[in-house]
Here is the input.
Amino acid sequence: MTYPIYLIGYMGAGKTTAGRLLAERLGWHFVDLDDAFHEIHGLSPADYIRKHGLEAFRRKEKYVVEDLAELPIDKVIYATGGGYPCWEDNMECLKELGTSIYLRWKPEHLAERLSLTNLDERPLLSGKSAEEILEVILPQLQERSPYYEQADHIIDAPVTDDAVLDGTEDEQMADILYELIVEN
Ligand code: S3P
Here is the structure.
């Protein structure tokens, strides 16, 4: 496996939470690329999109990822923004830069998880119930899945179809990621 590691997946997939736990366990660096974007551009991705539009955001986001990849450290876990892999040749870039891992969830579980978070930073979803969030997710996930599924590895969320989420999923995901990395 080549480093760094890029965690990819839809909003609410746990890229940040599982990624941070994983990095702690490995003793590696962790970088949330949405936070890096905020530091570099002075606006969160949501505010930047509100102010300058999605296209401008995607262009800047691309450079944030590529610029940080120039850093002379490779033991890094990056949590990418949910839409990053699905723009232009970004998925190919990730493959050249390191190893990509898709955290794959069923849309119903993503909707449930997202409905429990603060949605202010997710303007498309704010104020919506889990059911309404699902209506937004379904077509978007269908569109994005072919990109996500080009990842070097795919990890399915540790939850069966009808199981109720119990809040330990991110820790379990971090355990699975840890095993994958130390074995490869
Ligand atoms: C986006 C996801 C966000 C952030 C931006 C756009 C998307 O990141 O980059 O608001 O298009 O799915 P997270 O997946 O970390 O929430």
Q: What stands out?
A: The longest helix spans residues 130-148.
